[in-house]
Design goal:
With 214 residues, the protein is mainly alpha-helical. It has one domain: Orthogonal Bundle (Endonuclease III, domain 1). The chain has eleven helices and two strands. A two-stranded antiparallel ribbon has the order 1-2. Strand 1 and strand 2 form a beta hairpin. Helix 2 crosses helix 10. The longest helix has 21 residues. The N and C termini lie far apart (46 Å). This is DNA-3-methyladenine glycosylase I.
């Protein structure tokens, strides 16, 4: 009998949410929870998690390549120079979520990312300084469900620090989703075949170093 949140197929057990849509299979098995240290990849994850606010993640995942095209690979240095003309271009793009507030947020956050990198040298190092200690991570029960909307003390600290720097669409729930996606926490459920592999990757992962978070 399958445990709550887990499904076994052909003697392999994985988190049940993987079966919710075809696109989730690869995302669950090869991306979710894998540690990331590249500034542009992390900026993309922040932006996409922000676009998800109030929406299902599958909607964003299906449009991810369109987002990458529309936002020039999420190169925050380029996006920081976007103007009203770019906003109008993006609002006319049917391949993305055409929400003006969220589009403006990406541009604002790109400018804030440039400031942060100029100050600290690395977005990745700054973000990873918020990695929670083992004893403050939420117990993995059903957090791996992408609709669970969990938060944590660490995601709340990160949210407050980003908001203090002028970032938007970075609430505690959104930042916890970022922590899950970038490998800062491993929320594959106990029993999922991916959980031990993600933990091995986290143990081998060299955390970027730089200025500590606030």
């Amino acid at each position: 009998m399958d445990l709550p949140g887990l499904t076994t197929h052909e003697d392999v057990t994985r988190c049940t949410w993987r079966l919710s849509a075809p696109e989730y299979a690869h995302y669950h098995d090869h991306e979710w929870g894998v540690p990331v240290a590249d500034d542009i990849q992390l900026f993309e994850k922040i932006c996409l998690e922000g676009f998800q606010a109030g929406m299902a993640w599958i909607t964003i995942l299906r449009k991810r390549e369109n987002f990458r095209r529309a936002f020039e690979g999420f190169d925050y240095q380029r996006i920081a120079h976007y103007t009203e003309e770019d906003i109008q271009r993006l609002l006319l793009d049917p391949g993305i979520v055409r929400n003006r507030a969220k589009i403006v947020s990406v541009i604002n956050n790109a400018r804030r990312a440039c400031e942060l990198v100029n100050e600290t040298g690395s977005l990745a190092a700054w973000l990873w300084s918020f990695e929670p200690a083992a004893d403050e991570r939420p117990k993995v029960v059903d957090l791996a469900c992408l609709t669970a909307n969990p938060t944590s003390a660490a995601s709340t600290r990160l949210s407050k620090a980003l908001k203090k720097r002028g970032w938007s669409y970075v609430g505690p729930t959104t930042m916890y989703a970022l922590m899950q996606a970038m490998g800062m926490v491993n929320d594959h459920l106990e029993g999922c075949i991916c959980r031990p592999e993600i933990e091995r990757r986290r143990q081998r992962f060299i955390r970027p170093r730089g200025a500590a978070g606030e």
